[in-house]
Amino acid sequence: MSNSIENTRKRIDMFLNLYSQEQLDLIELLMETYCGGIVNKGDMMNLALSEEVRKKCDSALPFEQTKIIKEVLPSFNNGNYVYDYSKNSHGEMLNIFEALHIKLHTVLNSSNFDKITIPSKI
Fold first, then answer.
1. Is 120 domain-assigned?
2. Does the N-terminal or the C-terminal CB of the chain have fewer CB atoms within 10 Å?
3. Neighbour-count burial of 115, counting CB atoms closer than 10 A to its CB (0-12 exposed, 13-18 middle, 19+ buried)
4. Domain that holds residue 67
5. Looking at the predicted structure, is the pLDDT value of residue 120 above 70?
6. What dihedral angle (degrees, nearest 10) is formed by the CA atoms of 7, 13, 16, 18?
């Protein structure tokens, strides 16, 4: 193992030792999902959304709405969106990648990192 890999592993280990069980569970789920091959919209929903919200989401978008959006924005990718009915009965589009980013930022940012100084090189 090269010195660089050893240093990287030590730094990662230092970070992991600071995380709570909730944070480690999210990291494990993230690694299991992305190491398993192709990631689909259902996988992204499992990562980004709570079970309660997932139960009220539809991975298919209404065809007419998607058609109108593509007329205005031809690069629109409906693979990035789900329809979320958790907040109201008529639902709203939810960018699943944005939801995942917010979850990662929220969960992983609440840590003990401010209590130590991690050297850039070990």
1. no
2. N
3. exposed
4. 3-112
5. no
6. -90
- Residue appearing with tokens 């030792």: 17
Q: Using 50, 70 and 90 to split pLDDT, how confident is the model at 122?
A: very low
Q: Which two tokens stand for residue 70?
A: 């593509």
Q: What pTM was estimated for this model as a whole?
A: 0.76
Q: Is the pLDDT of residue 1 over 80?
A: no
Q: Is the pLDDT of residue 115 over 60?
A: no
DSSP characters over 44-102: HHHHHS-HHHHTTEESSPPHHHHHHHHHH-TT--GGGEEEE-SS-SS-EEEEHHHHHHH
Classify residue 81: in a domain, yes or no: yes
Has residue 23 got a pLDDT over 70?
yes
